[in-house]
Amino acid sequence: MAVSAQGDVVGGGTWVQSGPVGVRSLVDPQWMMDPKLELWVDAEREPVVIRLAGTLDGSTAASVLAVIGELLDQGSRQFVLDATSLDVVDSEGAASLIGIEMLVGRFDGRIVRVGT
Fold first, then answer.
1. pLDDT value, residue 37
2. What's the CATH number where 84 sits?
3. Among 72, 83, 89, 95, which residue has the least CB neighbours within 10 Å?
4. How far is 7 from 36, CA to CA, in rounded Å?
5. Where are the alpha helices (DSSP H) in 44-114?
6. Cα–Cα dist 62/42, whole Å
7. Which stretches of 1-116 are DSSP H helices?
8. Domains in the chain: how many in total?
9. Is residue 3 part of a domain?
10. What φ, ψ does residue 86 adopt, rounded to 5°?
11. What is the CA radius of gyration of the chain?
């Protein structure tokens, strides 16, 4: 089941949004902090699919790292990061993608990026 940022059921996965204080929950979409980036997480099976839409920059990248860190803590090790719906990726956002790969690697995981 998916839930949109507005709380509507929309199909497999869960929408979460980033913001300056990080990710509140992968399953509590009832909050909005930064309209610049949306994250959609389908963690029902591996690989976990994470779709990004909007802007990946210095202010939003930490939330993506937080989501992946939480998923790693929950035992996920295989990821697909779909960035085909990103409108903007600045230099800090691009650097965060390398940081994400390094973080997943430290857990002996694997991440495949699409659209970046």
1. 87
2. 3.30.750.24
3. 95
4. 18
5. 61-73, 91-106
6. 19
7. 61-73, 91-106
8. 1
9. no
10. -75, 135
11. 13
The pLDDT value recorded for residue 34 is 59
pTM, entire model:
0.72
Residue 74 to residues 16, 20, 39, 42: CA-CA distances in angstroms?
Answer: 17, 23, 18, 14
Cα 46 from chain centroid (whole Å):
15
Flag whether 8 is in a domain.
Answer: no
Of 19, 15, 23, 28, the C-alpha closest to 57 is: 19
Amino acid identity at 51? R
pLDDT 10s digits, 94-116:
999 999 999 999 999 999 999 87
3-state secondary structure at position 94 = helix
80 compared with 13, residue with greater pLDDT? 80
Residue 58 structure tokens:
């210095």
Tens digits of residue pLDDT in 49-92: 999 989 999 888 888 888 899 899 989 999 999 999 999 999 99
Look at residue 1 and tell me if it is in a domain.
no
pLDDT score for 88: 92
Residue 20 has pLDDT above 60, yes or no: no
